Give the backbone structure.
Amino acid sequence: MSGKVKLSISLAVAAYVRPGTPLETRLAGCSAAESMEATDRLMLLFCLSKDAEPAVRAAAISSLEELPEEVIREYMDSGKTHPLVLDAVRTLCHNFPITHPAPSEPMIADTEEQEEMEALPDQTEEGADLEEEDTVNKDDEEFLSKYKMAQLMGIGEKIKMALSGDKEWRSLLVKDANKLVSGSVIKNPRISEAEILTLIKAGIQNDEIMRLICANKEWIKNYKIRKALIESNRTLVQNATRYLGTMGEKDLAYFAKSKNIASVISNMAKRLLLNKKK
């Protein structure tokens, strides 16, 4: 193990990666990064690419790979580059020439508006910080290897892996553009209810996956999954209203006031709430 890597991150980045940050917030960080300046955007995606949750890592890696060239150039010209971030960009953006800063070039400067981390903020289930070597660790190498392998696989190979692969394979292939591949992940007998809940909360846009989830009677028995499906704008209204009838009074009150769901669902929640109070 080499010495600790010292990262200084802005408060905007820390809001998504500091210890104890909820999974939903970390997942949202990949989308939030798009509105950040280049230095924060790359640092946030880099930190999230080291997250303990495969779904977060996969989303962050995908975002890094799709970075616009102008964003990378802006980061390179900022004078606030970090070698670990550069390594990640070099690995994922093969067509963009990356060089390390000279040894005398400063890393991210410490300011009152930044939150300092003595080690790479690799989130664990308990939100603890872990020491990190200057190179990607074994688990990250394996994950990146799977990511690259998936890019070389044919549709048949992907479907086979989606049906039988481990959690990391599932987190990668569930985002595949081919619905036969992504749908096969949902049919994997090893997939857990926790993974299904994470997928729904992540705002997955694949209608076929949502259909398969709603068709699974065992998953629908899970109260948290039903609640998440009601909150998702990808759930068919007829399914969402059916699940609404199984919600407790507290959640009905929440849906009755929510501006983030369809008005027909919100209005039905109000009616159900009134009936419960009679």
User: Anything to note?
Assistant: The chain has two domains: 7-139, 154-277. The CA atoms of residues 53 and 124 lie 8 Å apart. The radius of gyration is 21 Å.
